[in-house]
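Note on ligand handling. Small-molecule inputs were canonicalized before submission; formal charges were left as drawn, and no protonation-state enumeration was performed. Where a ligand contained multiple stereocentres, the stereochemistry in the source SMILES was retained. For zinc ion, this procedure yielded the string shown in the input block below.
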Amino acid sequence: MPTCVECGAHVSNLFTEYSPGNIRLTHCKTCKSTADKYVEHDFIIIFVDMLLHKPQVYRHLLCNRPEGIGGGTRTWDIHPNIKKLAVLLVLFEVYIKWYRLESNAIAQQQSVFLTQSIVYQYLYILLFCAYEFTVFQVAVRWAVYWFVDPRTGRGEDKHPAPSTAVSSHPTSISYPQVTTALIISSFGKMLPILMVIWDYNEQSYAWLISLVVLTSNAEALAAFLRTSYLKTYTLLSISLAVKIACEFIFLKATGNKDLTSLLVGL
Ligand SMILES: [Zn+2]
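Structure output:
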């Protein structure tokens, strides 16, 4: 159902079309604002607002765009374009991790891994990144189920964020949309492409990219789940801890424990 991006209340429609190209945007009865101003905005404005961490833009993408609806009730029923973006994110992560390994002089001298063939190295890091991505998605879904889902009885939030104060918690949670929220808000992982165009020292900016991705993930989840920032960061922190523990187990089980400091991270 269409949602007001300002307060999260449901609205009957986002606009009324009087004639082709002549539309009037709906005003929300709850907060009296325009229900979804992004209907008339192009992609550049939407992307800039994503960079600025505006919760309204995530409500627009997750609730009011066909690709954000997610469709049916199956666990991994996600729009094909979002799946393609997920594949791209994993491939960018492979690039970042491999670059980090190859540019680290100590790893170059000591790691047996870097003496293996290029194909083996690529497939290993690809498997590691796909595993890391899946573990994080499952961990966030588990944390959302445990801490937010009203069916578990722990969905009541006593300290909602100010911007969401007028809206209530969703009565049920669409888990495909939780995954969609995480994927679209991880766009920051693609920023290293700029390093290919301009010659920056990537190592210096890796922490900044991780920070942008983490805060974007939190903003998207808080906007979609209508949870406070405290609760959102708590469930993301738990999920990251699970992810890092599983990464450590993966490296130990495959005999590459010496790569822990370079491959394990946010
Ligand atoms: Zn509203």
